[in-house]
Task: structure prediction
Amino acid sequence: MLLFMAAGCSAPYSKPDGGRPSSAPKLIGTTWRAVEILGRKASFFAGQKMDAHLILHSGGRLGGSTGCNNVNGVYNRNAGKLSFTSLGTTRMACSPNIMEQERRFLGAMRSTAAYEISGRRLILFDRGGRAVMELIAVR
Result:
């Protein structure tokens, strides 16, 4: 009986629907929503159309939104290092709060030098090792 109980304790976790828990999100192909930018909580302001987010596509291209404007560009990844270049945005004007958050979002992207995935969170770091943005996997 004791052996049976011990074997039951080592069984893999199953979700309530009987399926296996989903694996950790991958850097590429996941929609990453900003939750903290340069030490400040990312907000969703009145008039904002969508959350600030990033999607890194295979082939080195990126897309997403600053919360006001669409963003696109190129990323380079190598052994825990990550950088964003050739960033471009659409040119819509939004409220001052949204535009300030957009400036911080793009500034954090421009200063990114490394990354770490911890659970469902993507943390971007500058060259000095300071966290500049934290994002969460949403799909």
User: Anything to note?
Assistant: The beta strands are 31-37, 40-41, 53-56, 61-65, 70-78, 81-89, 114-118, 121-125, 131-137. The helical segments are 2-9, 96-111.
